[in-house]
Amino acid sequence: MYKRYIFFLFLMIVSSASVAQQIKRFNPDTIRTIVIDSAINIHSHRLNAQDFIDAVLADTGFYKAFRNMKKYDFIAENRIYTYDKKNKVNGKIYRKLRHTDLNGKHKTEYIAKRDSGNLYRSNGKYQLYTVEMFDFIFTNAYNSDFIKGPALPGSGGTNESYKDKLKTLIFAPGHKVKGIPFISSKTEIFSKEMRGYYYYQFARGKYLDSIPVYRFRVVKKPSEADNDVVIKELTTIFDTRNFQILGRYVDLKYSNWLFSFDIQMNIELANIDGELLPTKITYQGNWDIPFHKVERASFLIVHKGYKKE
Questions:
Q1: Where are the alpha helices (DSSP H) in 73-212?
Q2: pLDDT per residue over 168-202, tens digit each?
Q3: What's the CA gap between 54 and 68, in Å, rounded?
């Protein structure tokens, strides 16, 4: 059971070019939702790199956005693809669900449900841990204990549960996550030890055609060895009017004798009725660990039609 938990932790360190070249999947770039006007000199805006770093590290908006879903009725469309060793699709899952909240009680209704291909084991569970964890985090995020707990997830000590660690990896990138062999300290990309591995890049643009934003990119320096870092890129989209974080893209890649992964994940939020809510989540990734077949999967999750009863 412990090994399985450790696998789950590795799985969502979100939660790259090589994957994109191998598998034509959903492009998980939030930044494609943004039209970039130009690079900016942040000092002319009375900002500095530390302002952006502090905002990323202090942010609880992504976590709260998922908690906010409990207050709304909405439609979710989930598409999942799995791939064989030749990178051909061998499994598809489609879910269209109506989520309603009546008197504080959550209800999920299937509008459409289609599965095809090699998805399940003989016991009815998913073949891939990737898909199982996706189902745990996002299909039931608004209806499970995944969203219970403090506003800033995963901030506890070494005894925090594996779910809390997952929360940190997905919702609080840049923080150190204890208890993950080989890579715990490498997730703390803004630490004194890790800052030298990265370039900081700033730009202005429009999000969803109308919202003025800053784009803050933390990108691995080409001169650094791949395994010196885990996070190759962390891009964060800030609303210039209030510095709220509206989008996040993370590119992670690591390989050693025990395991390797190559993952890109993107989350987009929208401000609806004064509250941040998730509108699109994309994921694509490869996993290779001992005693398991290589896992290749991509997801597209779209939430729409939010309304309060």
A1: 129-134, 162-171
A2: 666 777 787 666 666 767 888 898 888 899 999 99
A3: 23
Query: What 8-state DSSP symbol labels residue 174?
Result: T
Q: Please answer whether residues 175 and 54 qualify as being in contact, where contact means their C-beta atoms are separated by less than 8 angstroms.
A: no
Question: CA 189 → CA 135, 173, 255, distances in Å?
Answer: 28, 8, 18
Query: What are the CA-CA distances from residue 70 to residues 3, 73, 100, 262 (Å)?
Result: 32, 8, 8, 32
Spacing of C-alpha 198 from chain mean position:
20
Q: CB–CB of 170/137 below 8 Å?
A: yes
Token duo for residue 214: 């800053």
> Is residue 60 within 8 Å of residue 245, measured between CB atoms?
no
Q: Which residue has the tokens 């090699």?
A: 118
| Cα–Cα distance measured from residue 174 to residue 185, given in angstroms and rounded to the nearest whole number | 10
Model confidence at 12: pLDDT above 80: no
Q: Which residue has the tokens 């549960």?
A: 161
From the number of C-beta atoms within 10 Å of its C-beta (0-12, 13-18, 19+), residue 108 rates as middle
Residues ≥6 apart with Cβ < 8 Å to 308: 71, 72, 73, 273
pLDDT at 111 over 90: yes
Q: What is the mean pLDDT of residues 41-59?
A: 83
- Burial-class residue 249 by CB neighbours within 10 Å (0-12, 13-18, 19+): buried
Which of 80, 93, 69 has its CA nearest to residue 143?
69
Beta strands in the chain (DSSP E): 34-39, 73-83, 89-102, 105-117, 198-207, 211-220, 231-239, 245-255, 260-272, 275-288, 295-307
Question: Radius of gyration of the chain from Cα atoms?
Answer: 19
